[in-house]
Amino acid sequence: MARVAISRVATPVDEERIYDAVKKAIDDLGGMEEFVEPGEKVLLKPNFVSPRPPPVTTDVRVVRAVALQVKEAGAKPIIGESSSAMTHWWREGMETRDVMEMLGAVDMAREIGVEIEPFEEDGVFKSVRVKIPGAVVLKEAEIAELPLRVDKIVPIPVLKTSMEGGGITCCIKDLHALPNTFTDRLRWHRSELWQKLVDILRLVREKISLCVVDAIRAMEGDGPIHGNPVDLNLIIAGDDPVSTDAIAAKVVGFEYPHYEVGPIALAHSQGLGVGDPSMIEVLGEDVEKVKRRFLMASCEIVTPHFENVLVCEGAACRTCKAWIKFTLYMLKDTGFFEQLKELGKTLHFYVGLDPPFPSDLDEVREMTEEALPIIFGDCAISAVKNSYWVLSQGELRGKVLLMPGCPPFACAQQASQIIEALGLEITEREAFKYVPT
Ligand code: SF4
C-alpha cells in the first residue's frame, strides 16, 4: 500500500519547528536513510516559479530542512530549479539565480554548505534531447541536464490550487521546470499540459525517491500566482509523487483526486503511482481532521475580480482563458481597471475556434466606440482571417488588437498593448515586475 505522512508545524512557525515537522513526516515513512544512499547526488527541486514569497513559492526553510536531512544521511543535496521568471516576455525577465537570491535560497544554501545549480545560467538552458519511451504526448524533449545526471530527485513544491494544473499544482506539476523553457516547456500548454506533465514524470519516475510538500502557507483561489494564502501549517511527505499529490489534493477538498485532478488521474490510470486515496495509508495527522475546503482556481473571468471585461468564446481551450486571466491579473496590479472604468470602455476578448466576432466590419467599427475588441489566440485569429488584413493594416489598426499564440503567453507585452491601445498612462513594462514589499 502507498504511504503518505502528514505532520503539523508547531506555531509560531520558525526554522527549527519546520525542521522538526519535516523530520517527523520523513521519520514516519522510515527515515531519510530509506530514500537516499550515502554518496548519492540528490536534486532538491523546490517551486521557485517567480521571485514572490510563499505561497507563490516554496518556503526556503522547508528546502533547508530537507537539505540538512539529506546531508545527515550522507548524500549530497543540490538545489536546482528553472524559474518561469526567466522568460522575460512572460514575467519578470530575471534569471533563476536572481530569483533564488531574492527568495533567500542562495544565502541559505551558503550557510548550510549546499550547492545551488539553476538549470539555466546567462540565458542558456543546459539541456539534453532525450526520447521518453511510453510517452503519450511528449515523446521527445529537451530536458534539463541536472535531473538526468543526479541519482535521486526530491520534489519540494508548495501546495496551491491552479488554473492550469488541473486542480492543484504540487509534485507532478513541479516537474514542469525540467523541459527547456525556450523550447519544450511552453509547448502543449493546452489540454495536453496534464499529459505532458505525466510524460515527464514517466521519464524521471524511478529517480523520485521522496517528495516533501510545503503546505505551511498554501494557496487557494486563482493559483498558481494570484490566489490567496491559507495557513495550513502542514508538511506532507511520501515516496510516490502521485500518492503525495492525491493526499495533498484531499487536504484541500478534492475527495476523489484520481478522478478530479487531471495530472493525478492520468498518472494513476497510466500506472505511474497511486492516486486513489482509499489505496493510500496516511501516517501522522488524520487527513479528515486537517483537511479544509479551498476556494478552487477558475479560468472564468468574474466580477468583482475584473470589471468591464467580456469573454466571447467559441470552442476555446481552458488554457486560452487562463492566459486571458493571467494578462488581466497583470493589469490589475497596476490600477488599470479603475482607469478603464473612468474611460467608460470595456475589454471584449474573442477566443477559440469559432468566436462570435462580427463578420460585418461596420458592426466592428461600431463596437470599437465602446469597447476594445481583442482577438486572443491563434484559433480566434484564424477564425477572423478574412478580416485579418483590415484589422491589422487598415483603419482599425490599434482599435482591434490581435494577440497571437497558442495560447498567447506574453502577458507583459499583451498588457502593454492593451494599455497603449486605450491611451492610458501606464506604459512602462517595469510596471509588471514584481517588487518586494
Ligand atoms: S489558440 Fe486555440 S488551440 Fe491554442 S489554446 Fe487557444 S483555443 Fe486552444
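^ iron/sulfur cluster complex. The chain has a mean pLDDT of 91. The chain has two domains: 2-290, 309-432.
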